[in-house]
UniProtKB/TrEMBL annotation:
Xref: InterPro entries: MULE_transposase_dom, Transposase_MuDR, Znf_PMZ, Znf_SWIM
Composition-biased stretches (Basic and acidic residues): 55-77, 84-102
SMART domains for this protein: ZnF_PMZ
Region (Disordered): 55-104, 693-716
Record flagged with keyword Calcium: no
Protein name stated in the entry: Leucine-rich repeat-containing protein
PANTHER family attached to this UniProt entry: OS12G0597300 PROTEIN, POLYPROTEIN, PUTATIVE-RELATED
UniProt keyword list: Metal-binding, Zinc, Zinc-finger
Residue ranges of every copy of the SWIM-type domain listed in the record: 599-640
Pfam families: DBD_Tnp_Mut, MULE, SWIM
Length: 739
């Protein structure tokens, strides 16, 4: 060859793909990461200088020519093991206890060949004094193909003083002994094969054929302690030919990350993968990491199946620790599968009936656990406007029948705890099941739309922010004139939007037409307000979920009770601010008195008539919010009345403290339930009730996202039919109905 090139194959390049390794000689790897080619002789001149020194360098340049110097006729035969990293470095550590010699391509692209190395039979380099070297391309292609077919060593066996074993080393029991040997095999990157394992002895050897590593441990007489009797620590194997490890069992991974999961239950499987790979150099699949996490979480919090099985006992514990509370679970009478759960704590019942506004919001959220289900919520509002959860229901699916059942249970708990049922105002998304349930169980209640649901439907239909804002302004309008003015503005922008709004009776959602008292609440907004902790709880087993809810309520009651003790005003802070603002506005109003109760209040906005006996104003603000409006405040101040005496009682600090005066008590750990319930006949009956998980499992994989295209808006949708449950709206493949 003219340029004294070293040529490998006809293509003049040796390319190994992603994570592929070439092995040359004994126990050495040549790892070429993705998309890196080793070109020898493709238009470049690569000389090999072999001198008398112990270190000989062959420069592999990319654009340089090199001369070939042959010194003292050294025959070199090398078994080379190299990892070609992403930064183009080719390195191998030289081990003191072996005759393995590294061939390293340093950052300066120099290839080191030790003087004592000999070329392997697979690659002969004949070097003679003052002669040039050439390798036949056809023969090299055949040899390189044979080299590539050798199994790659992906985990090189190394030494680690932290995992060294010694004769006489003792372990508390056989499990500890096995765990220590497993940790050693994983840390030193070799597979271990168990030969004998029983209560008195444990023997294992290296799984690699011909490797002499072997260990034997035996039990000491009279004690459970195990000790290592004999050990052959020398390995002749090079490592593992795969990225995993047989000893990385579910138990081992669980033990490795258990503490981290206890500290952070939101530790993701992907993070488990990364930690195991970073610490131990082992690659696991996502499914393996997920299964390990599920096993740990099941040991920590109990399994999903156990949660349903213990529900009857849990309900009894609620009633035992919180007397007056309602807790009941219902299963399918045919197969015993879970159907319904209803829980309401006595402290919540007392506070709602005696101190909260007569306003109730209904909402639901879907469970994100292993089994499908829906959490139903009924929530009141305290005097300061905060949510006051009253009752919770868990059902196997959201349906009209389940909403009817939930509202029936809600009516029962209110009826048995008060002589005079308050006339409630109920806010919901007014789906058919809720409407029918409210009419059947609360016939005198005012039932209105939750504006959040209404505005979301409106936004999906028209996707116009200006129209949505005008819709909210129309909902907030206090008078019919203001309401109609906003609807006309919407009609000027879009007649279709105005027609869409007018189809819904305004008495169901507009403040100006609504007959009940909303106290300024246009939305229930329950799930969104509780999402910071409810979202995480909805993925737990059912008892753990209810315990998370109970703990949150218990904390709220205590915190709000303590905070209210520091208030010195007559009204709660939010109501006090409203009254102060009304007093400031009232200073500019002119008041004319008609009699002891009726006043005419003149302002820049117009004239309003106030009746302080009936607590009403022509602007309707006093009636709708429960607090005197600015016109009423002006009238009250003109006749020397105390404004605070004319507010609804639910806004006073005394009533607020009454709302949180009761305590939600903790529930003991499930391991103590049987002991604490001895002799209780109800508890014994609960033990006899068997509740199985619902039949509907959560579908595997990532939930599908529904993305609507702009061109599909307004288009008539085709009605689809399910051949599995005979319902419309979905296909058989997406059917979530119980089997």
């Amino acid at each position: 060859m003219a340029n004294n090139d070293l040529i490998l194959g006809q293509s003049h390049s040796l390319a190994l793909g992603q994570s592929q390794t070439m092995v040359l000689g004994h126990n050495h790897n040549l790892g070429l990461t993705q998309c890196h080619d080793l070109d020898l002789g493709t238009g470049h001149d690569h000389p090999l200088g072999l001198g008398q020194a112990h270190d000989h360098y062959r420069g592999l340049g990319h654009t340089h020519d090199h001369e070939l110097d042959l010194g003292h006729n050294h025959d070199q035969e090398g078994g080379v093991g190299h990892n070609y990293r992403h930064d183009n470095d080719l390195t191998t550590d030289k081990k003191p206890d072996h005759d393995d010699h590294g061939l390293a391509l340093s950052e300066n692209n120099e290839l080191d060949v030790s003087e004592s190395q000999e070329l392997d039979d697979n690659l002969e380099l004949a070097a003679v004094d003052n002669q040039e070297m050439e390798i036949d391309p056809a023969r090299d292609l055949q040899q390189s193909q044979a080299l590539v077919s050798l199994p790659p060593v992906l985990q090189v066996r190394n030494s680690n003083p932290s995992y060294e074993l010694a004769v006489g080393q003792e372990f508390p029991d056989v499990k500890s002994c096995r765990r220590a040997l497993r940790d050693t095999a994983i840390a030193l990157h070799f597979e271990m094969q168990t030969i004998k394992s029983d209560k008195t002895r444990f023997t294992a050897k290296c799984e690699s054929e011909g490797c002499p590593w072997r260990v034997h441990a035996a039990k000491l007489p009279g004690v459970p302690t195990f000790t290592i009797r004999t050990i052959h620590e020398t390995h002749t194997c090079g490592g593992l030919y795969h990225l995993g490890h047989q000893q990385a069992s579910v138990q081992w991974v669980a033990h490795s990350v258990e503490q981290r999961l206890r500290e952070n239950p939101n530790y993701k499987p992907k993070e488990i993968l990364e930690e195991i790979h970073r610490v131990h150099g082992i690659t696991l699949s996502y499914k393996q990491a997920w299964r390990r996490k599920e096993r740990i979480m099941a040991a920590m919090r109990g399994s999903f199946e156990e949660g349903y099985r213990l529900l009857p006992q849990y309900c009894e514990q609620i009633k035992r620790t919180n007397p007056g509370s309602i807790a009941s679970v219902y299963g399918n009478p045919t197969d015993g599968c879970f159907q319904r759960l209803f829980i309401s704590f006595q402290a919540s019942i007392y506070g709602f009936l005696n101190a909260c506004r007569p306003l109730l919001g209904l909402d639901r959220t879907f469970l994100k656990s292993k089994y499908l289900g829906t959490l139903l919520l009924a929530t009141g509002f305290d005097g300061d406007g905060a949510l006051f959860p009253l009752a919770f229901g868990v059902v196997d699916e959201e349906s009209d029948n389940n909403w009817m059942w939930f509202l029936s249970e809600l009516h029962t708990l209110l009826e048995i705890n008060t002589e005079n049922m308050p006339r409630l105002t109920i806010l919901s998304d007014r789906q058919k099941g809720i409407v029918d349930g409210v009419e059947a169980n609360f016939p005198t209640a005012f039932h209105g739309f939750c504006m959040r649901h209404l505005s979301e439907s409106f936004r999906k239909e028209f996707n116009n922010t200006m129209l949505v804002n005008l819709l909210w302004e129309a909902a907030h309008a206090l008078t019919v004139i203001e309401f109609e003015a906003k609807i006309l503005e919407i009609e000027e922008i879009s007649q279709d939007a105005a027609y869409w709004i007018r189809r819904i009776p305004p008495r169901l959602w507009a403040t100006a037409y609504f007959e009940g008292t909303r106290f300024g609440h246009l939305t229930a907004n329950i799930v969104e307000s509780l999402n910071s902790w409810l979202l995480e709880a909805s993925g737990l087993p059912i008892i753990q979920m209810m315990e998370c809810i109970r703990r949150q309520l218990m904390t709220w009651f205590n915190e709000r009770r303590e905070i209210s003790m520091q208030w010195t005003s007559i009204l709660v802070p939010s109501a006090e601010r409203c009254v102060v603002e009304a007093i400031e506005c009232a200073r500019t109003y002119q008041v004319l008195r008609a009699n002891e109760a009726e006043f005419e209040v003149i302002s820049q906005e117009g004239t309003n008539i106030v009746d302080i006996r009936n607590r009403c104003c022509l602007c309707r603000g006093w009636h709708l919010h429960g607090l005197p409006c600015a016109h009423a405040v002006a009238a009250l101040l003109s006749c020397g009345q105390n404004v605070h005496r004319f507010t609804e009682s639910c806004f006073t600090v005394a009533t607020y403290r009454k709302a949180y005066s009761q305590t939600i008590h903790p529930i003991p750990d499930k391991s103590l339930w049987k002991e604490l319930s001895d002799g209780d006949p109800n508890a014994n009956k609960a033990l006899e009730v068997i509740i199985h998980p619902p039949k509907s499992l959560k579908p595997p994989g990532r939930p599908r996202k529904k993305r609507g295209r702009a061109e599909d808006r307004g288009r008539t949708k085709r009605v689809v039919h399910c051949s599995r449950c005979n319902q419309t709206g979905h296909f058989r493949t997406t059917c979530a109905a119980p089997i």
